[in-house]
Amino acid sequence: MLKTIYLIRIGRLDQSYLRDLKTNLELGFNEFNMNVEILKKKIKLRRNYLDKTNKQYKAQKLLDLLYKNAKEKKLFRILGILDKDIYSKNFNFNFGVANRGSHAALISISRLRESFYIESSDLYRKLESQETLNERILKEAKHELGHTFGLKHCLNDCVMQSSNSLRDTDKKPVEFCHPCLIKIKNFLT
Ligand SMILES: [Zn+2]
Ligand SMILES: [Zn+2]
What we know:
Layout: E1 3-10, H1 15-28, E2 34-38, E3 50-51, E4 56-58, H2 59-72, E5 77-82, E6 86-88, E7 91-94, E8 96-98, E9 104-108, H3 121-125, H4 130-148, H5 166-171, H6 178-188
The protein binds zinc ion (2 copies).
């Protein structure tokens, strides 16, 4: 059976990010017979998802919403993507979140840009390589989807290494290690 991962925008985000991610994810999950679709509708970023004190969005609330979507429409997997900073309990920020073995995952691309960490970001944003950004997005997307396929964090040379900084994300490979691949295979059968 063909398994479909649905990508959905949350708030304002250029469709080109989703198109690139679709292509890269299809290659990335090639051996699992998955395809990737981009949902036309997007999720509105409502004020009540925003924590007013630290100006970050509540990852868990957004994840709950995605999960509700997946459940109602019986989607195999849904991955929400937004360009706003997110956080959850016990973390100052998240690159992404997912519940293990669940149907929904969420990633934020805000902190995957160098410009996030530099003042007067407009100047620097232009200098950033789209290719680097796309690779970071792919890593975080595969990582969070990996959690939905039952994976925990991994110490091997593997995309399931946890990232606490952009440097961590850049350091880890885009691939799953062999034991993690086996675990995904077992999880899906
Ligand atoms: Zn993780
Ligand atoms: Zn691994």
